[in-house]
Amino acid sequence: MSFGLYRVLAWVTGVFLIGLVFVAMPARYLVGEDSAFALLSAPQGLEHWFGPDTPLVLYITLPHGYVYMAFVLVVIWVALDRRWGAGRTLGVALSGTIPVLGFVIERRVVEQERAKDAAAVEGGGQEPAPTTG
User: What does the pLDDT look like over 67-120, one tens digit per residue?
Assistant: First the structure.
């Protein structure tokens, strides 16, 4: 259960982070006459989507923060369940802060955990930890 939830939240966190870094933050800080750095003017008729009061904060930034907090809690849950070390746990949790890295780390974690489960079944006849996907 925890591992499947980790996989879902890793993807959701990654998608929101990409939206945050490449859509919401540029719209807030780089586009519009009253934005902090004002590199471009806002397109005609769409001015309300740009600048410091952009509604993208409500639609992208805030949900990303809540989803990331849930992601970190689920990473801790998986780490306790799978007996990860502190370094791996911290690395996986921080992967949700760098765009695209979360997708790469999620894939690696899944491959490593599946290999570990397969080795446990072959080696000792033990039941592997449940995984989804």
Answer: 999 999 999 999 999 999 999 999 999 999 999 999 999 999 999 999 988 888
- DSSP H helices in 25-100: 25-29, 56, 62-82, 86-94
Task: Tell me the three-class secondary structure of the chain, residue by residue.
Answer: CHHHHHHHHHHHHHHHHHHHHHHHHHHHHCECCCCCCCCECCCCCCHHHCCCCCCHHHHHHHHHHHHHHHHHHHHHHHHHHHCCCHHHHHHHHHHHHCCCHHHHHHHHHHHHHHHHHHHHHHHHCCCCCCCCC
